[in-house]
Design brief:
With 143 residues, the chain is an alpha+beta fold. It folds into two domains: 29-67; 74-143, no CATH class. The protein is built from two helices and seven strands. The protein has helices at 42-66, 97-108, and strands spanning 33-35, 38-40, 77-79, 86-88, 90-95, 125-130, 137-141. The strands form three sheets. A three-stranded antiparallel beta sheet has the order 5-6-7. It has a two-stranded antiparallel ribbon with strand order 1-2. A two-stranded antiparallel ribbon has the order 3-4. The chain is rod-shaped and about 115 Å long. The mean pLDDT is 77. The structure holds zinc ion. Residues 80, 82-83, 85, 131, 133-134, 136 line the site of zinc ion.
């Protein structure tokens, strides 16, 4: 057996062995978000946002539904619970969440000039009833 004087030359990168598949790096997907110790992908985030908005609108409906809907879209006679007088209510229109959503949908559909229409149409807004004597808020009529 003959000994050679020099060892074989060192190559920096060894050729990959046959059948070797490098493991995927966890940072490879861009759509994943790490929240604390939980890793969420885009689909899970979308589901969580949908659940959040459903809960938000449900809570809003419960809170609004707790107020008695005894008022209509026009002025009406009532007894003010604050000053105890028989009054004709004073009404004011107020943009509601529905008004903003309709305007947003019109904007998203490209109707830039039409997006202010919900703010001008009474049927897209709420009517708040106030006492003309003590200016107390009495209730809201929602369409
Ligand atoms: Zn009053």
């Amino acid at each position: 057996m003959e000994k050679s004087g020099n060892p074989p030359p060192y190559t920096e990168t060894a050729p990959p062995a046959l059948g070797f598949v490098p493991p995927p790096r966890p940072e490879a997907t861009v759509t994943q978000v790490v929240v604390g110790a939980v890793r969420l992908d885009l689909l899970q985030i979308t589901y969580l946002m949908i659940i959040f908005f459903v809960i938000l609108f449900t809570v809003t409906q419960v809170v609004v539904g707790a107020v008695p809907q005894a008022f209509g879209p026009h002025q009406q006679s009532a007894t003010c619970p604050h000053c105890k007088q028989q009054i004709i209510t004073r009404t004011e229109t107020q943009a509601s969440t529905k008004t903003h959503i309709i305007a947003l949908v019109l904007c998203l559909l490209g109707c830039w000039l039409c997006c202010c229409i919900p703010y001008c149409v009474d049927s897209c807004q709420n009517k708040n009833h106030y006492c003309p004597h003590c200016n107390a808020y009495l209730g809201t009529f929602t369409h």
